[in-house]
């Protein structure tokens, strides 16, 4: 199934609410939104091409943006869009695009989008912080960490072979605008303006590792439904090797969030967690174990939706320990009941403070005690205890030869747009760094940079390796 192509063209000198409304409407048609910019020698194109291109590309609703090198008709011939969108003010003009529509079919649509308040229209797009990362120079100095070393570590991610095991999730975000309050039943009334669907759960962990250069094999389970196709399509588009087992009785885990100005108003989850068929389970274990013998690192991404059974964890972890394969784990308990304590003998675990306390049933001791108890009780080599806006606590075993066994990195981004996916990004970046030989101090810092970049944008898309390298260009 091919997505419809939606085409918009113009100068786009300075992005303003009118542009946002037009592009948001174009995006709402459900296809691939393509924006073609007029070249610099065009009438009224007074801002340099590079600046205009960067501005439009910063919008998450735009799939492709380019400066036209030929005539409008030449570009339309190449793209063959299903929809051409123009502002309502052009409806009574002579519109040469009709010649293309008459020849190839499709539809010429005139609309300027909804008349929302300007502050709310901008809430729908993905515009990053101008300065995302504020580095923790004191931490870097304490551990004699040089930016050049960190860049070298990230560059080596491409050498890794990674296996990711965990629950696949599909996340959908629906942006709404307040309309008012119902007089009949005293309820808040909203209207949807924009939606985005993302691969989530362990799927985004696998995708993130692949985007950062590693060769990934991903194992999970879905239902036999349209969301299964959605997951496979994204993984295929990004060259992720995967084995997704379908269970018709277990619909693909789906999380729907209604948001207004990046604040979640309501969440709806579609989940079924009954046991996996024993024969299917045995086949999964055999296939994973065979693949692991040629891999460098295993990442458990546990969302507690039933895929990571005790049998899988025990059998696979024992094989990794015997063959000196790195093992890292994260078990989330944000809206479900996870338990990081299910994962023993790991090289790294990355729980939140709540998840660590929950696993230990310890809600009173200090953070360092919690981190140390996690190491002692679950035989873990390193702990990154994530603390949200307070940063991350790093803990090594007490018998470590390092002069430091505990340290903390402050939050590198104090102006988050959306915190969803920060922990997954921390998990992937720090894990890959450890697997290529970084110290836990270096790995934790690379993970913190990844998280800081991730929370600077809305939605749940992976970050690129170039973004990390850019932030590592520390003066």
Architecture overview:
The protein has 475 residues and is an alpha/beta fold. It has 2 domains: 5-122, Rossmann fold, CATH 3.40.50.620; 137-471, UDP-N-acetylmuramoyl-L-alanine:D-glutamate ligase (3-Layer(aba) Sandwich). 34% of the residues lie in helices and 24% in strands. It has 16 helices and 18 strands. It has helices at 17-28, 49-57, 72-79, 97-104, 118-122, 137-142, 147-155, 202-211, 226-237, 278-292, 310-322, 353-360, 367-378, 422-435, 440-454, 465-471, and strands spanning 5-10, 32-37, 64-67, 83-86, 107-110, 161-166, 168-181, 188-201, 215-222, 241-246, 253-260, 263-270, 297-302, 326-331, 348-349, 383-386, 392-395, 406-409. The strands form 4 sheets. A 6-stranded parallel beta sheet has the order 10-9-6-13-14-15, with helices on both faces. It has a 5-stranded parallel beta sheet with strand order 3-2-1-4-5, with helices on both faces. The protein has a 4-stranded mixed beta sheet with strand order 8-7-11-12. Helix 9 links the parallel strand 9 (215-222) and strand 10 (241-246). The radius of gyration is 24 Å and the shape is globular.
Q: What's the layout of helices and strands?
A:
Elements: E1 5-10, H1 17-28, E2 32-37, H2 49-57, E3 64-67, H3 72-79, E4 83-86, H4 97-104, E5 107-110, H5 118-122, H6 137-142, H7 147-155, E6 161-166, E7 168-181, E8 188-201, H8 202-211, E9 215-222, H9 226-237, E10 241-246, E11 253-260, E12 263-270, H10 278-292, E13 297-302, H11 310-322, E14 326-331, E15 348-349, H12 353-360, H13 367-378, E16 383-386, E17 392-395, E18 406-409, H14 422-435, H15 440-454, H16 465-471
Parallel strand pairs: 1-2, 1-4, 2-3, 4-5, 6-9, 6-13, 7-11, 9-10, 13-14, 14-15
Antiparallel strand pairs: 7-8, 11-12, 16-17, 17-18
């Amino acid at each position: 199934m091919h997505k419809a192509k939606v085409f918009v063209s113009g100068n786009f000198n300075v992005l303003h609410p009118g542009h946002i409304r037009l592009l948001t409407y174009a995006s709402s048609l459900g296809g691939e939104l393509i924006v073609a910019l007029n070249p610099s020698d065009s009438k009224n194109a007074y801002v340099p091409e590079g600046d205009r291109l960067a501005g439009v590309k910063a919008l998450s609703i735009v799939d492709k943006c380019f400066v036209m090198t030929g005539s409008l008709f030449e570009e339309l011939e190449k793209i063959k869009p299903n929809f051409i969108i123009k502002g309502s003010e052009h409806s009574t003009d002579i519109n040469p695009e009709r010649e293309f529509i008459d020849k190839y079919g499709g539809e010429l649509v005139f609309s300027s989008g909804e008349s929302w308040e300007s502050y709310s229209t901008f809430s729908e797009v993905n515009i990053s912080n101008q300065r995302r990362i504020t580095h923790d120079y004191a931490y870097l100095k304490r551990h004699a960490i040089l930016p050049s070393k960190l860049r070298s570590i990230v560059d080596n991610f491409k050498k890794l072979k990674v296996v990711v095991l965990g629950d696949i999730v599909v996340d959908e975000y629906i942006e709404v605008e307040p309309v008012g309050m119902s007089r009949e039943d005293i309820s808040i009334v909203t209207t949807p303006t924009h939606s985005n669907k993302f691969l989530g759960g362990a799927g985004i962990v696998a995708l993130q590792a692949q985007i950062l250069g590693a060769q990934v094999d991903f194992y999970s389970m879905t239902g036999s439904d349209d969301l299964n196709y959605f997951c496979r399509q994204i993984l295929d588009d990004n060259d992720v090797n995967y084995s997704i087992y379908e269970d018709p009785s277990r619909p693909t885990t789906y999380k729907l969030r209604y948001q207004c100005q990046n604040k979640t108003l309501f969440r709806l989850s579609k989940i079924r967690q009954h046991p996996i068929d024993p024969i299917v389970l045995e086949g999964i274990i055999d296939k994973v174990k065979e693949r692991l013998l040629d891999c460098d690192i295993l990442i458990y991404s546990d969302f507690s939706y039933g895929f990571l059974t005790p049998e899988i964890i025990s059998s696979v972890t024992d094989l990794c320990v015997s063959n000196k394969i790195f093992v890292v784990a994260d078990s989330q308990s944000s809206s479900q009941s996870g338990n990081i304590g299910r994962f023993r003998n790991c090289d790294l675990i990355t729980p939140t403070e709540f998840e660590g306390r929950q696993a230990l049933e310890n809600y009173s001791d200090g953070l360092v005690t919690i981190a140390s108890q996690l190491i002692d009780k679950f035989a873990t080599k390193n702990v990154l205890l994530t603390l949200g806006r307070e940063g991350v606590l790093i803990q090594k075993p007490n018998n470590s030869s390092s002069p430091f066994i505990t340290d903390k990195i402050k939050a590198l981004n104090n102006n988050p747009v959306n915190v969803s996916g920060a922990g997954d990004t921390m998990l992937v970046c720090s894990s890959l760094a450890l697997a290529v030989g970084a110290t836990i101090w270096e790995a934790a810092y690379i993970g913190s940079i990844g998280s800081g970049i991730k929370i600077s944008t809305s939605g749940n898309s992976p970050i690129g390796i170039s973004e990390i390298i850019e932030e590592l260009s520390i003066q």
